[in-house]
């Protein structure tokens, strides 16, 4: 059992959710069956570990107190985890007509949410933030910019990955302890009801801007 799985079991125990490990089969299966107030939710757990670049930065911080600039394309890691987990989540969600979620934890050693911050999850799910640049035919005129929108590399949509109900990320806060963020997929065939996971900090995508909006409990 890795750290991510231990933390999910701890979270479930703290919040009174049933959390049962699913035995492995010949075909890939989700990791856990969660049951909240009698409602079944399948969960696949993925742990984010340090990349080669992050390992180098951590060594620099240890030796000299500061590290080189680093980063990745927004949402890249989360997008890969969605792709890797979707098959088994879809199989069980479709079979039982139940919600299915991806659970992520940043165990890279980097401070904070790292590659699981809100913007990374947003762009992984809905696509890269894109701004159209309008170049006038008259070179004496300045460039102009259109409104931004979700562009390529979407992981969810009206016809894409609809058996993914959402993403839950676990975070060990230095003051508040173990915390869970839940990001809802508005296109999910079997969405997770807000009231069911009221103990998580929940977000839904904003209808007016490239951002999340907090679900008020």
Tell me what you see in this structure.
This protein has 217 residues and is of the alpha/beta class. It has one domain. The chain contains four helices and twelve strands. It has helices at residues 3-15, 52-64, 76-96, 118-126; strands spanning 18-21, 32-36, 39-48, 99-106, 129-130, 133-134, 144-145, 149-150, 166-173, 177-184, 201-205, 212-214. The chain has an eight-stranded mixed sheet, with helices on both faces. A hairpin with a 2-residue loop joins strand 2 and strand 3. Helix 3 crosses helix 4. The longest helix is centred in the middle third of the chain and has 21 residues, at 76-96. The radius of gyration is 19 Å and the shape is globular.
Helical proportion, percent range:
25-40%
Give the helix tally. 4
State the secondary-structure class.
alpha/beta
Give the overall silhouette: globular
Biggest sheet statistics: 8 strands, mixed
List unreliable stretches of 5+ residues.
none
- The total strand number stands at 12
| C-alpha end-to-end distance | 32 Å
What series of H and E elements makes up the topology? HEEEHHEHEEEEEEEE
Estimate the mean pLDDT confidence: 91
- Number of structural domains: 1
Report the β-strand fraction as a percent range: 25-35%
Radius of gyration: 19 Å
**Strand arrangement in the largest pleated sheet:** 1-2-3-4-9-10-11-12
């Amino acid at each position: 059992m890795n750290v991510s799985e231990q933390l999910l079991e701890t979270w479930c125990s703290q919040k009174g959710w049933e959390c049962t490990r699913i035995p492995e089969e010949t075909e890939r299966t989700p990791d856990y069956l969660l049951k909240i107030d009698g409602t079944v939710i399948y969960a696949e757990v993925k742990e984010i570990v340090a990349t080669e670049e992050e390992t180098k930065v951590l060594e620099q911080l240890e030796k000299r107190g500061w590290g080189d600039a680093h980063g990745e394309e927004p949402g890249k890691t989360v997008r890969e985890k969605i792709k890797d987990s979707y098959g088994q989540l879809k199989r069980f969600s479709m079979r039982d007509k139940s919600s299915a979620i991806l659970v992520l934890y940043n165990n890279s050693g980097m401070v904070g949410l790292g590659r699981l911050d809100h913007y990374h999850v947003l762009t992984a799910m809905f696509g890269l933030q894109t701004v159209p640049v309008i170049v006038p035919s008259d070179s004496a005129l300045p460039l102009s910019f259109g409104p931004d929108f979700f562009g390529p590399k979407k992981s969810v949509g009206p016809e894409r990955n609809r058996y993914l109900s959402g993403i839950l990320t676990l975070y060990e806060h230095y003051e508040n302890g173990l915390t869970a963020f839940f990001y809802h997929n508005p296109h999910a065939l079997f969405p997770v009801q807000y009231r069911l996971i009221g103990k998580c900090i929940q977000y839904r995508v904003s209808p007016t801007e490239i951002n999340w909006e907090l679900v008020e409990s």
